Amino acid sequence: MHAKTREKYLSMCKNACMxxxxxxxxxxxxxxxxGSLAKAGEMLGVNYTTxxxxxxxxxxxxxxxxxxxxxxxxxxxxxGLQVGQTARRMDEHNSELQRxxxxxxxxxxxxxxITVPPLLVGPFLTDVFAAFKERYPxxxxxxxxxxxxxxLNKPEADIAIxxxxxxxxxxxxxxxxxxRSASFASVGLAKMLRETPTQPIPWVGLLNTKGAPKASLRxxxxxxxxxxxxxxxxxxxxxxxxxxxxxxxxFLGQSDGxxxxxILQPQxxxxxxxxxxxxxxxxxxxxxxKDLLIPYFKRRAADFWGExxx
Length: 310
What we know:
Elements: H1 3-19, H2 22-34, H3 37-44, H4 48-62, E1 67-70, E2 73-76, H5 78-104, E3 110-116, H6 118-135, E4 139-145, E5 159-163, E6 172-186, H7 187-195, E7 201-206, H8 214-217, E8 223-229, H9 232-240, E9 245-249, E10 258-261, E11 267-276, H10 284-299, H11 301-305
Parallel strand pairs: 3-4, 3-5, 7-8, 7-9
Antiparallel strand pairs: 1-2, 5-11, 6-9, 6-10, 6-11
């Protein structure tokens, strides 16, 4: 595109974006990143018809076509890319402003958003949530229970608790607990395997599981994968129902109806971390929550490390 024409587009986009609804501007960016109305809708938490309506509205405001529909999805025009760049800068400035305001708060009130793996909520984090709420009743806790790594730069959350050996290097954090995993089964299946040791070990694993854990095959070579699931909570349910033996983190082995087996001795597993954006490291609400969270996990360290099984 000619330099003068490009500058015209930039000026047009900036002026139009100043007068346009922020939701419409953000929708342009999500459609560029998602490539389809459906994916953009998922990113925004709306249906695809709402995305289409917003795109039509902002195109009318700009007087320009922002997208071309192709077989592979929606392709941004040059004008669409310029609006997207403006939207991204606005989003970054908005996120920076939110973090700055949160970091400067003197009174503990308002909203604190925390993203956590669903499996940690019930057995552990509810105790911390309750203690925090009792001590700081004016703070509204929003909990986003998901295994997806939400973006703390936007910010989609103020604090992230993640199970990982490679926490995001752009964030600041602290290890909450070291973990190990082992083999677990239902009480009934464990009894049957002890009584008939020559029976094949029925393993349950994730979708990418190729076979039984290698460390178990030396002493228990007669093994097979009988079920694969795409989620650890589903694996836990399968184990509790007696469908098979599974390698799970130690803390899940404390679930009702589950016992540890010596088929697989404890192995290293991903650690648990608490992370936040560097700008929020000293934010009062963030510090107050971490002051409760970190000591709690230290007291519960044995639940994550577990014991050897004989």
